[in-house]
Amino acid sequence: MQYFVVMIDYGRRGREAIVDPELTRREVVSRIASGEYTNVSFIHEIAGCSVEDVTDDILSEAALPEIPLTGAELQANTLDHVRDLRKQSLSDGAHVVIAKT
Fold it and tell me: Edge-to-edge strand order for the sheet containing 50-53?
């Protein structure tokens, strides 16, 4: 018999071990890639009487390729950051002067 144990860490709320003998490796990878499983502490593959830590392998399989940001996205990120700084300064009661470049 072969199955996977996926340990999810919920922080202060504790941990949850997902153990389903019907869950295949492909399904575990799919659930991580889709975001259904987040904050994975570890993934163990149980086969017969042996246990193997396959966390790194499965997380790398589920990783989405890095897509570089375009110029427009970089500019939008900068504007979002400036807006967040303004919001924070207003909530703190301080004044922040932001110079345009």
Answer: 15-19, 2-9, 40-47, 50-53
* Separation CA 32–CA 39 (nearest Å): 9
Residue pair 17/7 in contact (Cβ under 8 Å)? The answer is yes
List Cβ neighbours of 65 (8 Å cut-off, separation of 6 or more): none
Decide: 25 and 4 in contact? Cβ < 8 Å: yes
Per residue in 37-57, pLDDT (tens digit) is: 989 999 999 998 999 999 999
Q: 71-99 pLDDT, tens per residue?
A: 666 677 777 777 877 777 766 655 555 55
Compute the distance between CA of residue 88 and CA of residue 61 in angstroms, rounded to an integer: 38
